[in-house]
Structures are given as C-alpha cells and as structure tokens.
Amino acid sequence: MVENVHKTGNIDYLKRSLTGKKQVVWKKIVNYVLVLFLFTFLYWSFTYLNIPVRRFFTMWGPIGYKIHQLFLPPDFGYLNNMKLLRSIVQTFQLAFFGTVVGLILCVPLAWFAAINVTPSKFILYPISRGIIILSRSIYEIIWAILFTMILGFGPLAGTLTCILATIGFSGKLMAEEVEAIRVGPIEAIRATGGNEFDVFFYAIFPQVRVAWAGIAIYSWDSTFRLATILGYVGAGGIGMYLRETIEMLDYSKTGMTLIVIIGLVIVSEVVSANARKKIM
Amino acid sequence: MVESYKLMKKKKTLYTTLILVVFFAVLIWSVYGVLIRDTNWSKIGSAKEVWEAVTRFFPPEWAYTLKLAKPTLDTFLIAVLGTFIALILSVPVAWFAARNFTPFFPVTYPLGRLVMTISRSVHEIVWALIFVAAVGLGPFAGIIALSMRSIGFTSKLTAEQIENIDYRPIEAIRAVGGNPMQVFFYATIPQVLPQFIGTAIFQWDINIRRATIIGIVGGGGLGLVFSQKMAAYQYAQATACLLAILLLVLVGEYTSTRLRTLIQ
Question: Cys-Cys link to B68, which of A31, A33, B156, B244 (CB 3.0-4.6 A)?
Fold first, then answer.
C-alpha cells in the first residue's frame, strides 16, 4: 500500500479518494432508486389487484363483529359432543400415522437425495430429489383436495397428505443434514470393503441420528398443525366441524372449534418442545 | 459402584423400552383408527376405479395454461404484499416481545408473545375465512390473511435477534451523547437488519406457497381458479393450474435461495 503511493505519487492517491467519495454518492443514488422502485411497485400492484384501500379503514367494524360472533361467547356446550371429541382423536391418529410413515419413507429418500453419499447419482438422486421437491412445492391443502377427489372424503386422504407433507418438510432438511456430515467414517467403511448399506448404517446414520430426531419432532409439530385444518377440505379430522359450522352459520360453534384447534396446537407444541429439549 | 452403574443402565433400558412400547401402541391404535374404523373401503372402490380417478387429471389442458398468467401474477403479488405488510407489522410486535427492549415488561411482553402465538397457531385458511367475511372476496382478504399468518414467525425470529444483540455499540453511541432515536438507528437496526432481510425472503418464499391456496376460501389468485375447476369437474384444467402453481413455487424458491446467498 505505502509502496504503491510512493511509486505512483500523490495524484493517484487523490483520485482514489475521489472514487471513494463517488462510490458513496452512487450508493446513495442506488438506495434512493431502490426505494422509489419499491413504492412504484407497491402502488402499481395495489392498482393492478384492484385493492380497495379504503376498506382497510372500514374493515375493523366487520372484523370486530366477526370476532363477536365467533368468540363472544364461544359455544362451550359444543365441547360436550362425542362427534367433536372423536374427530379430535381422529386428527391425532391421522397426524401420527402420517408422520410416522412419512418419516420412515424419509430415511431412504434423504439418503438418496444427499449428493455426497447417494448410491447412484443419475437414477436414485434425481428421483428422490424430484419426490421431495414435488411434495414440497404443491401446498398440502391442494394435495388434500386431490386425494379427497381420488379416494373420497375421509381420514385416508388426510393421512396421505400428512405423509407427503412430512416428506416435503423433513426430506429436504434431513438430506441437508446428510450433506453436512464428515466423510472420514464413510471412507473408512468403504476401505474395509463395506457395501452401501454398511456405509449408511455405520457411517451416515450415527452422524445424523440426533439431528434427524430433532427434525422429526419439528415435522410432527407442523404435520399436526396441518391435520387440524385438513378436515376443512374433507380429509378427516376436526377441521370438518369448522366447515360444517360455518356453512350452518353457527359461528359460536366455529369459535369453539377454533379454540379447540388452537389449544391442541399449543399443547402439541409444548410437548414437542420438551421432547426436543430432552433429546438435544 | 459397578452395581449402581448396572442399576442405572437397567433403568435406562427399561425407560427406553417403555417409550418404545407406548410409541408402538399409539401407532397401532392410529393405524387401526385411520385404516379400519374410519375408512369406508367399499366407498373408495377397487384399485382400477382409483386409477381411473387418477387418470382423469391427465393429460393437462396445455392451452389453458396461457389463461393462467393473470391468476399466477395475482398470486405472486398477494405473496409479496402480504409479506410486506407482515414485515411492517412485525416490527412493533418484535419490539414488544423482545425481553430486553420491551417498553413496559409486565404488559407489553405478554402482549407481544400472545400476538405471536395466535398468529402462528391459526392456519392461513382460517385467517382468510375471517378476512373474507370482513373485507369481502378478493385478493385484499388474501393479503391481510397472509400478513396476519406471517407476523408470528417474522417477529419471533426478529425478537430473538434483538434479544441476542451486542450492547457495546449501544453503549458507545450513548457515551458520545446519542439520544434513544440515534441509538435505535445506528446501533440496533444495523445489527438486526441482515437477519431481518433473510427472514423476510424466507417468509416471502413460504407465502408464495400459502398464496396458492388462499383462493380456496375466496382470497383470490390461483387457488380460486383451481377450486373452481375442481368443483366443475374440469380435471384437465385443474392439472394446468397445478402446473402453474408448481412453476411459480419453484421459481420463488430458486429466487429466494439465490437472494439469501447474495445478501450473506
């Protein structure tokens, strides 16, 4: 640095400091342009979508009325309803079944979809990546609608949705865990003549076991949350009563159902947070 | 010593076995409930009928995909605007819910946490139902529903970031006589901003997915077209909608991954 200044003289140094100032000015200009662009974009999109911005100020009354209809007071008597209680059980069952099956399927998928350890780069890797990406990209509710169209209403469609949701959610995360492992043990197993299964069971699995357990619990959380709403499209579980009570315009019962759903989600979150703490 | 170790190990194996037994019992109970008690297999029909139901969706009606350009753009904009509003609203929530910066701990901290929990535990479909009833059908309800749903996640991560802030810059600015405003702008924001932008991009990516279904309950966008086509038994066009959704989500995911690597 010092040598450079000495060689090229003061003029160059001056130039450089000038360019520095210019850069600051340019940065400011770029920032202003970005902000301008942002506001133009916002304005354009509001007009494009025909958004009645005025309603933003008038919506508070209807929202208050809606909340009044739903929760003031919720229909507590609705809890004393065997059907509702059974649908809670069903919600839990389909979420649990779906998560377990999904996680079991995730184990090979994550193994094949990790680029560093995949047994076959050109067949299994693209297939398993494709499965994971497909189940991630189509939103769960859409899967549920498709499954109810194909298999009819009921918890089977919900279970399949939960399986796909679990694959989409944990498949990617689990594969990422596998991609971050150390290669030493793998090479050691290979060097002693182990086949791909040996590599998986003795080199890969022990390294990702704990992280996978954490992911599994997260996945349970998100699947259970999903299962509470699946019934809305007819895929089984408590969500069914959401739709039913809304269609019957019986909003105080809807409010009670919502309270039950939120309660269930919070309980499941607390339980799984404790489980996660125990594992980690 | 050895005895107590053996006893401990025995206890541990007992505990693990107990958990496993409970786990499998619950699993069998769930399988029984879902597959045997609650599923009416005769209604589903034979494998052939199921296969026929699947093939109704193929091939997609390719010509229809061109008409989906507007709903796709709608969905995209709903996601962007929903995320934007959520970001604005999550700033005060994060401020309230950050243990170290909350203005009046006994009141504002639980308030912030409550908003967070409610926002996250209510599904976007439910939010959309509420706002469709309040502001009418259309993208506006979808935007507000998405932003309500996103506040929880964004403000939770931001509040955690604020709680883990480095205090030295704050002290430095206070030491040279800065007022609380200057402390906020020159010490707090620069530390939170990079993570906040990362969260914003992540949330935007998720919101694109959510925006694709918000239309099912009347929130506008691709979901509306999809549910209409399904209700009208036009399966080939529904598949075209699915392809548009897939394309939009994949482009969104790719962009968000690139953007996040760019800002880091």
Answer: B244
